[in-house]
Amino acid sequence: MGWRYALVFSASLAWAGVAVAAKDAPAGWITLNFVNADIGSVIKAMSEMTKRTFVVDPRVKGTINITSPRPVDPSVAYDILLAALRMQGYAAVQADGVVRIVPEVDAKFYASPTAAKSRRGKTGGEMVTRVFPLRHESAVQLLTVLRPLVGANSAINADAGTNTLLVTDYADNLARLEQVINNLDVPSADEPVLIPLKYASAQNLAALVTRVFTPTGGQGAAGVLDLPQVAVDDRSNSLIVRGRDRSLIGKVQNLVATLDVPTLVAGNVHVIYLKNAQAVEVAKTLRNILNADTSVPSQPAAAGVKTGQDSSGPGMIQADSASNALIITAPEAVFNNLRSVIEKLDVRRAQVLIEALIVEVSADKAAQFGIQWMHLTSNGVIGGFGNSGSNNIGTVAANPASATQGFNLGVVNGTVKLGTDSTIVDSLGNKFTTPAAVLYNLGMLATALETDANANILSTPTLLTLDNEEAKISVGSNVPFQTGSYSISSGASASPFTTIERKDVGLILKVKPQISEGGTVRLAISEEVSSLQGAGGVLAATNKRSIDTTVLIDDGQIVVLGGLIEDQVQDTEDRVPLLGDIPLLGHLFRYSNRTHNKTNLMVFLRPTIIRDSATAAAVTDARYDYIVGVQKASAPPHKLMLPDAAPPVLSELPISMQRQDKKIGDAAPRQDMLQAQPKQVDANPRQDKPQADSWWAPQKRGAAIPSQDKSPAAQ
């Protein structure tokens, strides 16, 4: 029992030393001097000095040594005690104001504070449980890195579902682990960083940041690789920054935070230059949007005045047609919304190449045979038989040149003068004599004619226009037609005149395409093909074929718009009653005319959507080569007695306009459109697949060019 009294005496000496040393120290400070002191006695003494409640596990036994040369704060004394116990293999677990002293190996099983962040006032020697949620790295992969940093008796686990780490260790070691985790749990080099903006425009800041952080020429390729990439999200008015250098991204964030401040004035003036759309039309659309969004009474926006009376109102929009630019005065929030609308409207509009194919094949067969009789005297006609057509025997007797084509055989017996000459005396006594008509005494006229006429007309008008824009092509002649005639008499003189009206005769194609999202083209088509019938003149008749329709066609698809198949037979016979019915001999008193007309007309159409310059270049290249081939094939042949004359030939296309798969100088004339089968065309044409060559079959240079039809319809 003597050693116990000595221990108590030693502890009493320690307390006495504390009391003595505390005279010159701050109030409440203590001096520690435990030499080979029992752990339980030291804990009891520390409980009195720090006013803490301790619960000691029965397995906690042994002695410790704690010495402080100068007085310390009670909280520091508590940390010194926990450090000494930790050296002996014991840990302190604090919960609900009670400090449990247990073996270190069992400390993780006792209730301890659990938190996602470090808590203030925690002593480094206490055993604490922390939850570390990870944002970028995988908790399972980070577990293998952190496990060597925790004690042998501590616990660390990973939850893959929530991507968190659960660690039970001393508080000071958890603070160290927190710093390690913060340094490891960072975005990767390629992970983007979102910077939301409140006041500034994301578009303006993106351009500014790109200019500021663009490396100079002396930095070389390394500076270009480390350059952050800045993108814009107009919907949220945010910047998306991505780069390999995280420090550089931090500088971008600091610069953006400095610039993202409210402006001194509510409305700013912005100028936006348009690339594809028309500024006047876009300005009208934006004014309608502003007028629909505001409830403040406004003046007409077209006059260029402010649409709102309040300084925070929508603002003003004006269009400068000379520079194709928009001038917008509006707050940043309104301006950002308007700019997102402008970007969607100011896009390159697709174009549509319309290829029409008008094919007309006709066959006309006619046959006529007949014999006409006539007997004339000076007193007039006393007998005869003639037909009712233009080749009447009386007409031929008056003018033999009016006989129709074919075989004409007549018997002429001199001439016959019908009637006598007439004399007219005017008011001045002048005499005017009008001779009597003189006809050939044509006794008989036999006519035989057979005609066979075939026509094959191919018209291929081509037209390129913008989406939702009407276009028209007219190829033909402006022909005069008589509309009336007048004769104004003034005394003995007369002033006759004729009124005429000119009309276009030929090919007229009007079309308005509208492209849908799926690649389907809606076409409003008006097509007319007209030609003169016969020899023409002011009283000529015209053949007219027209189509007015609206169709839906897929990109590159060939569709038939309409057509006409006509088969007409006409049989005419003029004869003398009774005599014309006599077998064989009846042919002497009959005139027969039979015609057979057959017409086949079809109209085809194919639209091709041109969305980019590559497809447009392919279309232009094919037709350019075709016309070059036609020019070269039309060169006159060499003749010995005539000088050579080189025809004018177009020059080669510039390199920038030629297709990539075609060598310079490899232009070849193209033959007719029907020689090649049309290709299947995708709904979204690619740049490397020209879409307009299916009707233009390539031929070798110098190949024969089909003869060009000279009829008005073919023109």
Structural summary, described in words:
With 715 residues, the chain is α+β, with helices and mostly antiparallel strands. Helix content is 22%, strand content 38%. It contains twelve helices and 28 strands. Strands 16, 17, 18, 21, 22, 27 and 28 form a seven-stranded antiparallel β-sheet that branches. Strands 6-7-9-8 form a four-stranded mixed β-sheet, covered by helices on one side. The protein has a four-stranded antiparallel β-sheet with strand order 23-24-25-26, with no helix packed on it. Strand 4 and strand 5 (98-103) form a beta hairpin. Helix 2 (39-50) runs antiparallel to helix 3. Mean pLDDT is 74; it is low at 1-22, 294-312 and 661-715.
Distance between the termini: 135 Å
Number of helices, counting only DSSP H or I runs of 4 residues or more? 12
Derived structural class = alpha+beta
Summarize the main sheet: 7 strands, antiparallel
Number of β-strand runs: 28
Report Rg.
Answer: 54 Å
Mean pLDDT: 74
- Residue fraction in strands: 35-45%
Helical amount: 10-25%
Which shape, going by the Cα principal axes?
A: rod-shaped
Note poorly predicted spans: 1-22, 294-312, 661-715
The quaternary organization reads as single chain
What's this entry about, in short?
The protein has helices at 2-21, 39-50, 74-87, 139-146, 171-184, 202-212, 220-225, 246-259, 279-293, 332-345, 393-398, 613-633; strands at 33-38, 53-56, 63-67, 90-95, 98-103, 114-115, 127-133, 155-159, 164-170, 193-196, 229-233, 238-242, 268-273, 316-320, 325-330, 351-377, 380-385, 407-418, 422-425, 431-434, 437-459, 462-466, 471-490, 493-515, 520-533, 541-554, 559-575, 590-610. With 715 residues, the protein is of the alpha+beta class.
